[in-house]
Write a structure and sequence with these properties.
By secondary structure, the chain is mainly alpha-helical. The chain contains 11 helices and 5 strands. Helix content is 65%, strand content 7%. The chain is globular. It starts with a helix and ends in a 9-residue tail after the last helix. It binds zinc ion.
């Protein structure tokens, strides 16, 4: 094989890697360089660690209540989202928080139940979290970290001089950025997207989407009296967020009415 055709093949491979992308449930094209399967495996591993090391809620009524809402949301999913091995852990901790990991692993801290005051409000939290998973947000975030680290490496090459030290420094910076890419909260754009998709999930499951506004108002109120709930520190709220939810309410109410008409009327009791 000539060196030219070898070079062409490697160029094509680079092009293939660079355009590796998927799309979110809203149809937004996104760049996802990591393997969803590898991230799901890591999610499952982290979930096992959380299960083994956290004080899990033992109270049957609470477990049934949160599972009932989570199941109703997950049942609205289709295709590969529905095929994921969804798992729920309820940790007995006062933090007002919930989060997800790739592959369908949902963690709810019991403190969130003091702010999400009924099944609809809890559905708003869980719908939002499930949306982060189905929209591949962790993959997108990690992929951004990879691009950034690649950028750092190229920058070190361009800067030249002290090759060894430069690259060592660049690798150090790159790995720090990668860690940040994985640990950082989702971006504003991802949060807004999860809000919209989450509203759709809760409405399709038959939960009242108007309660999402109540939930965020509860979050705001609780942050005035106590320290800012953790969920809010990673989910910057404020009026803009509530306003954008209100904007989407008419279409979500239509989905909610449709779900009700089809008999999807969850009754998750605490
Ligand atoms: Zn979020």
């Amino acid at each position: 094989m000539s060196s030219l055709s070898k070079r062409l093949i490697s160029l094509m491979l680079v092009a293939f890697i660079v355009v590796a992308c998927s799309s979110t449930p809203t149809g937004r094209r996104q760049l996802t360089l990591k393997s969803d399967a590898a991230l799901a495996q890591e999610g499952a591993r982290q979930m096992a660690i959380i299960r083994a090391n956290s004080p899990l809620v033992q109270d049957r009524a609470t477990i049934d209540y949160v599972s009932c809402v989570a199941n109703a949301i997950v049942e609205t999913l289709e295709g590969e989202d529905a095929a994921m091995y969804w798992e729920l852990a309820i940790v007995n901790q006062p933090d007002v928080n919930a989060f997800v990991m790739p592959g369908g692993k949902i963690v709810v801290k019991s403190g969130i139940l003091t702010v999400a005051q009924n099944q609809h409000q809890l559905a708003a939290v869980l719908g939002h979290e499930v949306a982060h998973v189905t929209a591949h947000h962790a993959n997108e975030r990690a992929s951004r970290g990879e691009i950034t680290s690649y950028g750092v490496e190229v920058l070190a090459l361009i800067l030249g001089g002290g090759w060894y030290n430069r690259t060592q420094g660049a690798y150090g910076a790159a790995s720090a950025l990668n860690t940040l890419g994985i640990m950082n909260p989702f971006s504003r754009m991802q949060e807004s997207e999860a809000d919209v998709i989450g509203l759709e999930y809760m409405a399709r499951a038959g939960f009242d989407p108007r309660e999402s506004v109540e939930l965020w108002q509860n979050m705001n109120n609780s942050s005035e009296t106590t320290k800012v709930p953790e969920f809010m520190s990673t989910h910057p709220s404020g009026e803009t967020r509530i306003e954008s939810m209100v904007q989407h309410l008419p279409e979500m109410l239509a989905l909610y009415n449709e779900a009700q008409a089809q008999g999807r009327n969850p009754d998750c009791q605490r």
